[in-house]
Design goal:
Keywords: Glycosyltransferase, Signal, Transferase. GO terms for molecular function: alpha-1,2-mannosyltransferase activity. Belongs to the glycosyltransferase 15 family. InterPro entries: Glyco_trans_15 (IPR002685), Nucleotide-diphossugar_trans (IPR029044). The chain is of the alpha/beta class. The chain has 15 helices and 12 strands. The strands form 3 sheets. The chain has a 7-stranded mixed β-sheet. The protein has a 3-stranded antiparallel β-sheet with strand order 5-11-12. It has a two-stranded antiparallel ribbon with strand order 7-8. Strand 11 and strand 12 form a beta hairpin. Helix 6 runs parallel beside helix 14. It binds guanosine-5'-diphosphate, 2-acetamido-2-deoxy-beta-D-glucopyranose (2 copies) and magnesium ion. Guanosine-5'-diphosphate binds next to strand 1 and helix 6.
């Protein structure tokens, strides 16, 4: 039966439109994770946060806010005195990987954290370096706190470029990604630092008897009085990880992190947590180009220069296997995987999202971004201001996506 020519043309056109749409659907989700059995559905059997944010019309930090929920452990009498052998301090330390040349900048960070929090609780400071600390560094940082300080060398085998890295390939990759403007790509020590912070700091012998840590970098600022034991709060509220700023990464620096992660998850579907934040990791709605370049990962990550965390997570079997897989793949050197995206992807997959906490009350700045609450406890930053840098930096903020999927708890 011969169809009229017009109908044949229409039929063919319809077919090609259909084909085009099918292709679009497949292209839209380049690295989408499909692990049906273990992937929990939103809201299933879990208490969902009542504090989710569907529409972002202003920074929630512009709204007045206070302390997180009770229980809160406070100073009373001498319970947190620095020399109290039976203090209420838990198994925790402030830690910093820092260079001797950054003495002045780490003293700035110490002054702020001591003034706003630690002069009350006196948690020890643990310093790490890939070369020995100078006497001046030790003296001046010891004088900056009443709490104990200790100084440790990073073991060579934790810092050196691993034997399986092909140095020719490394140099070629550096040239390639430099041309794509990946910041710090040419700085070998930056790659080493990111790798150490990703998977090796938790293995340092000096932390063997420590459970919680607060990571502090040189030249950061703290603005708000914090009057409860932050580590005690993590323990009492069963939290694994606390962040305060959430931003997008340079997608070129992590182009194969997601595909490599998907390979790992295919072999280890059992590590996917029922309460995972996969939807957050894959949400490219604000920055589709980032997700495309990063092959399925939005690049949204907890900004890890601030971290309050439970080391048990970084020492868990799931994370150790994952880190080893990533390390073997070479991406810390052939690309410039940051510890922030690596930590964030792992937390989003292996941890229950209710165990990740936004410390909205800890006013903080690491240039060029702020976390600044509107609270009488804060001075020196402007409530609700995210950056004081160029206007385009505003679009680096990905807290809206975290608040949409998880909430502001
Ligand atoms: N000891 C030591 N610390 C380093 C080295 N590279 C980076 N760091 C530390 O690692 C952290 C991140 O480095 P930073 O230069 O602040 O990177 P950025 O915040 O990403 O610009 C800081 O605490 C630095 O002091 C290094 O080669 N040796
Ligand atoms: C502190 O934590 C570490 C690691 O979780 C553990 O091995 C150690 O026994 C703990 N120490 C105390 C005093 O609780
Ligand atoms: C803390 O988390 C663990 C592991 O997810 C869970 O088994 C436990 O019941 C939680 N405890 C509290 C007090 O929420
Ligand atoms: Mg820094």
């Amino acid at each position: 039966m011969a169809l009229p020519k017009a109908m044949r043309i229409l039929g063919a056109a319809t077919f090609f439109v259909f084909l085009f749409l099918v292709l679009q659907v497949f292209r839209a989700e380049p690295g989408a994770l499909k692990i049906p059995e273990t992937g929990a559905k939103e809201g299933e059997g879990k208490k969902e946060s009542a504090n989710k944010l569907d529409t972002w019309d202003h920074d929630p930090q512009a709204d007045p806010s206070g302390e997180p929920p009770e229980p809160l452990r406070r100073v009373s009498g001498n319970n947190y005195d620095p020399d109290n052998e039976n203090s209420d301090r838990i198994n925790a330390t402030i830690l910093s990987l820092v260079r001797n040349e950054e003495l002045h900048d780490i003293l700035q960070s110490m002054r702020d954290l001591e003034r706003t929090w630690n002069h009350k609780f006196n948690y020890p400071w643990t310093f790490f370096n890939d070369v020995p600390f100078t006497e001046e560094f030790k003296e001046k940082t010891t004088a900056a706190t009443k709490a104990k300080t200790s100084y440790h060398l990073v073991p060579k085998e934790h810092w050196e470029i691993p034997s399986w890295i092909n140095m020719d390939l490394y140099h070629e990759s550096v040239a390639l990604l430099r041309a794509q403007k990946v910041q710090y790509m040419e700085k070998t020590s930056y790659h080493q630092m990111c790798r150490w912070n990703s998977g090796l700091f938790s293995q340092h012998p000096a932390l063997a008897t420590t459970q919680y840590y607060w990571r502090v970098e040189p030249n950061v600022h703290f603005f708000c009085d914090v009057d409860y034991d932050v580590f005690g709060w993590m323990q009492d509220h069963n939290k694994t990880y606390g962040f305060n700023i959430n931003i997008y990464d340079s997608a070129e620096s992590v182009a194969t992190l997601w595909p490599e992660t998907m390979k790992f998850m295919k072999d280890h579907p059992e590590y996917l947590n029922e309460g995972n934040a996969l939807k957050w990791l894959e949400d490219g709605s604000h920055r589709p180009d980032n997700k495309k370049t990063a092959n399925g990962y939005s690049t949204c990550h907890f900004w890890s220069n601030f971290e309050v965390g439970d080391l048990s997570f970084w020492r868990s079997e799931a994370y150790r296997d994952y880190f080893d897989h990533l390390d073997r793949s070479g991406g810390f050197f052939y690309e410039r995987w940051g510890d922030a995206p690596v930590h964030s992807v792992a937390l989003g997959l292996f941890e229950d999202k209710s165990k990740i906490h936004w410390f909205r009350d800890i006013g903080y700045q690491h240039i060029p971004f702020f976390n600044c609450p509107t609270s009488p406890k804060c001075t020196g930053c402007q409530g609700g201001r995210f950056t004081d840098g160029a206007a385009w930096l505003q679009r680096e903020d990905c807290r809206p996506v975290w608040f949409k999927h998880v909430g502001m708890d």
